[in-house]
Design brief:
CATH class of the largest domain: Alpha Beta
Oligomer: single chain
Strand content: 25-35%
CATH architecture of the largest domain: 3-Layer(aba) Sandwich
CATH superfamily of the largest domain: Dihydrofolate Reductase, subunit A
Radius of gyration: 16 Å
Strand order of the largest sheet: 4-3-2-5-1-6-8-7
């Protein structure tokens, strides 16, 4: 069975929306990852560690449309270029798939994601895609969370976790680290 891992930058108040800023990001605090906290390479080492484990990427439609043209041309993301991509969307069409960014499959539902997880292969990492992550978390499909929590309170934006009345999930801390710039790395496994 394949693991589904959510990885993201999160504010202390749980916002994962628009951490990088830039065109098309409507969040009033967009760009918060690089604006307000001193850059320390060791605080971002998790991203390189994840790459060694990543066998495929998963996105919601909006994140795919935002990342595909940028990451496809980015030297920083070159290792992701040929990895299989999965986009969970009820509206994305085959002709909207980015050329030159590896094989891409459109999945139409959480049930399709559950079927994918039953197959052979390594970990699938979800980047961005807060709405997708909430739906998959509510469906009990996320196995692990890799979070870099930033010492900022944004007061608005998309939250990773829903407020739906659902069964409790217990998380087990697998790894943590705190950095002098206030960022905290938290890796949790979903225990049940």
């Amino acid at each position: 069975m394949r693991e589904l891992v959510y990885t993201g930058f999160m504010s202390l108040d749980g916002v994962v929306d628009s951490p990088g800023g830039g065109p098309g990001e409507e969040h009033r605090s967009g760009g918060w990852v690089f604006k307000d906290v001193e850059f320390l390479p060791e605080a971002f080492a998790l991203k390189g560690e994840e790459l060694e484990e990543t066998s495929a990427l998963m996105f919601g439609r909006r994140s795919y449309e935002a990342f595909a043209p940028t990451w496809r041309e980015s030297d920083d993301h070159a290792a992701y270029k040929d990895l299989p991509k999965y986009v969970v969307s009820g509206s994305l069409t085959d002709d909207a798939i980015a050329d030159g960014w590896g094989p891409t499959t459109i999945l139409r539902s959480a049930e399709d994601v559950a079927e994918l997880k039953k197959g052979e292969g390594g970990a699938i990492f979800i980047h961005g895609s807060a709405e997708l992550a909430r739906r998959l978390s509510d469906a009990g499909l996320i196995d692990r969370y890799h979070l870099l929590v930033f010492p900022v309170l944004l007061g608005g934006g998309k939250s990773l976790f829903s407020t739906a009345d659902r069964e409790k999930q217990v998380l087990r801390l697998r790894e943590s680290a705190a950095y002098p710039n206030g960022i905290t790395k938290l890796i949790y496994e979903v225990a049940g």
